[in-house]
Amino acid sequence: MNEPEVQALRAKIQATINNSFQEDETDASIRTIDGMTYQVHIEHASGSPKNPLSDEMLTKKFNDLTQAVIGTQGAQQLLSGLEDIANTTDILELMRIARGSQTER
Asked: Which residue among 8, 69, 73, 102 is least crowded, i.e. fewest CB within 10 A of its CB?
């Protein structure tokens, strides 16, 4: 978020709240330098109850968010443990993995 490119883009963004939208609804419009406008409306965002992520996409999102914190091995261990949480006998081990205590990055 602190990279100059990101800061430059953030300066060009204007966000507004539309109180008539549902919680998982949004729209966006982009106005180009030459004056063209492109608009998209998303009725139900990806990952919302009415537009859930596939198992494959959910796994990818999980890995994208966890690997940088607890490493690839830790992310795989944590995901396996969470997928089989009903049979987990040691929740503290999952917590250690989630903290990155038992993994290499």
From this structure: 8
Number of independent structural domains in the chain:
2
- Residue 103 has a pLDDT of 43
Q: What is the DSSP track for the chain?
A: --SHHHHHHHTT------TTS-TT-EEEEEE-TTS-EEEEEESS-TTBTTBPPPHHHHHHHHHHHHHHHHHHHHHHHHHHHHHTGGG-S-HHHHHHHHHTTT---
Q: Are residues 94 and 66 in the same domain?
A: yes
pLDDT digits (tens, 9 = 90+) for 9-65: 998 999 999 999 999 999 999 999 999 999 999 999 999 999 999 999 999 999 999
104 belongs to a structural domain: no
Give residue 13's domain range: 4-42
